[in-house]
Each structure stands twice: as structure tokens, then as C-alpha cells.
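Reviewers of the previous submission asked for a worked example of the structure-prediction workflow described in the proposal, so we include one complete record here. The input consisted solely of the amino acid sequence. No template or homolog information was supplied to the procedure at any stage.
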Amino acid sequence: MTSFTFSRRVAWPALVASGLWLAGCAQTPPYERPTMDIPAAYKEQAAAQAQGIWKPAQPQASTALPETWWTVYGDAVLDRLQQQAEAHSPTLAQSAARLRAAQAAVTSSGAAALPIVGANASSSRARSGTQLSSQGDGSSTARISTSHSLGLTASWELDLWGRISAGVSAAQASAQASADDLAAARLSLQAAVAQTYFSLRAAEAQAALLGETLKAYDRSWELTRNRQAAGVASSADVAQAEAQYKSTQVQLLEAQTTRSQLEHALAALLGQAPAAFALEPTAALPAPADVPRVLPSDLLQRRPDIAAAERRVAAANAQIGVARAAYFPTLTLSAAGGYRGAPLADLFSAPNLFWSLGPALAASIFDGGARSAAVETARANHAQVTAAYRQTVLTALQEVEDNLTAAAALAQEEQLQREATAAAQRALDVVENQYRAGTVGYLNVLAAQTTVLSSQRSLIDVKSRRLTAVNALLKNVAGRWEALPPA
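From that input alone, the workflow returned the following C-alpha cells.
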């Protein structure tokens, strides 16, 4: 690093004029949003497919997110759980702390554009050298001096090449990305709480169904024992009834275990220890929200993860300017003034006054290619985050399409499963009457009962999967079905 200091004889008007001219030579490339088109409608919604219009993605600010999107389920318990998660989740606390750090970085980077003013004070007493006495007696003398100083210093680096402003822009974009990360973490947490809650209620419904089925199987087992005692049923029938009852008990224990584990997972999402959390069983699954026939793709622009990815591209673009500016010298204006003298009592007298004022120009002459490597690194990072942004948009499109397909298919599947369950129950009623009349064997009853239980459990599973798909779809479109308001 070579440094040149100008004296007061430098032509200040010329220096200022050149500085103003150089100040316009910012090294940051003009920022352009990454080109990434999204369709006006989704492939899986045939009603809107004919539009065939594509438009560039324009990510929206995280403040556009609805705060209580889960209220579409109309479940007061879920509302309460979401409030607890918002207040106590360690995941949100981490994201909020990262946002505060990013905001502090913005303040820190902006401070570099302002003058730095400092104060100093010192007092010293020193002994310098020894010399023989002139009287020739072999004695020596020493010089002792006292010095006091009090002053102010100031320095200001002129941002001729936009290095400081580019750093501020990068910090601001990073802080905005952190704000969007916080919104994304909140949305993910809310969706996870809702999904875990739905799975827990589904496990409860399975357990309740198995409990009621056990009662029916116990009556069948008792009926078979009575028929054996009357000589109209075999011991094999009794053994089959017992096996069916016992295997259903195993399934009930599995459902209860699943419910307990989901309750533990829900407690962790709420920031509580499992031992301190309990949820009253209801075995009631909320109804899934109705998916509109036409879902505007504009909703994708609300996703905070897309907005965060775009802000990281802006930050990387600004970092290219920071790296380029390192090729050019830095100009710093410095000033100092104060009092310096030996007697403390006369320190603030005119003879002890000192001051200095002048610019300093510093530039690196040889660095072994470090600056070139820094610029190339900044460009490569920009290319990386641009590709990451595009991948985020593509992944978001895939997620919406997947869950649109799943939600539509599962709605039809639920209706068909209801019809299958009703048919299985009718068949069981007929077979049980025939068994009591002695026209069929118990194996027919066993098969019919198994079919009914399997069908009923499948219906609960389809309801749960449909809730999962709709919940994921709401998360994919940042929590609401409505289109974006006009810009």
C-alpha cells in the first residue's frame, strides 16, 4: 500500500472538482431482477389453461403475508396453538435474531460514509540520556521532561468509487432477505403446526374407530363362543374371532402411540417440553378449505422464500461493486487539533496550540491478483444466487402443481371412499344376519368385518391426506387464495 499526503499548497478547488467528477464513477453494475417467467395459470387448472400468458415474476414484500390464514379451518384449538407457536417458537427466535444482526450490519455499513471524530488526551514524564558532569568529579546528570497533550481528530473517506454505497446497498438487501427469511420461517412454522395438528386428530380418529370396532368384535367373539357352546359353531370360528379381536387391539395401540408422538412433536413446535403439554382428544378432523377453480399464479409472488432469494441476488450484485472499487485509490480527508506542552497549568495557551489538515490518497500497486480474484468471486457468487433464485421459483411452481393435483384427486377419492365404506357396511349387515341364521360360516363375517374396518380407516386416511394437500397448497401460495391487489 502506497500513501501520498498532500500539503496545504495543493489546489483545493481542483481536488474538490476532480473528487466530484470521480464520485459519479460507481463500480456497481445496474441491478436487474433475474428473468424468470411464471405462467398466468397453473397446468392442473384446465379452466385457466387456455390463457397461455406468461409474465415475469415480481416478488412481493414479506409484509403482504396474511397473519391468520389458518382460520379458514374454523378450529379454535388450532388458533390457540398458532398463537403459542408465534410467541414461544425457538425457530422464530433464531430467525428474528438473524434479522436484528442484519439490520445492525446496515447501520454499521452506513457509518463508513460519515466522518469519524475522536478525542485523545495524554500525559507523560520521560528521562532521556545521561552525561558526565563538567566538573570532572565523575558524577552524571539526566534530562527529565514532562509533556501533556489534549486534542481532537477527524477523518472522512470520500466514496469516490461507490465502495461504501455499494456496501450499504448489499447490507440493505441482505437485511431485506433476512426479513423475508423470518416471514418464510413463520409461514413454515404455521404450516407445520397445522399439519401436525391434523395428523394428531387423524390418529385420534383412527384410535376412536378402532376402539368402537373392538367393542363390535368383542360382541362377535362372544356370539361365536355362545354358538360353539350350542354346538352350531366350531372352535376354529372362535379362534378366528379371537385373532381378529387381538390384532385390532394391536392396531389400537399403534394408533395411540402415533397420537402420543405427534403430541410430543406439536409441543416442540410450540417451544414447550412434551411433559408440560397436553391436548384434549376430540377425534374430530376439521374440514379442508375449498380450493378455488382458478388459482392466480400471481399468488406465487407473495412467497417469502422467493422474495428472499431475489434480495440475495441484489446483495450479490452490490458486492461486485465493492470488489471493483478496490482497484482504485481511497481519498481520506483528515484533521487534527489541540494543545501540547510541558507545564500543565499553561497547556491551553496560544503557544501550545497545534493543528493539521490535509487529504491522503492511498492505492495498492501490487497485490498478487487478490483484487482480481475478489471480483471474480463476487461475480461467481452473483451467478450462484441467481441460479438459486430461479430454482426457488421452479420448485415453488412444482409444489403448487403437485398439491393442486393432490387436492383435486383426494376430493374425488374421499367421495368414492365414503361410498365404498357405506357399501361395505351394508354387506356386513347382510352377512351378520346370514351368520345368525346359520346360512354362512364365520369366515364370511370375518371377511366382511375386515373390509368395513379397512374402508373406514382408509376414509380417515383420505381425509387426513386431503387436509395435508390443501394445507401445503395454502403454504405454497403464502396463505391465501385471493389475487394480488393492483400495483
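Strands lie at 2-5, 37-39, 54-56, 116-132, 140-158, 330-341, 353-363. We consider this example representative of the routine output the project will generate in years two and three.
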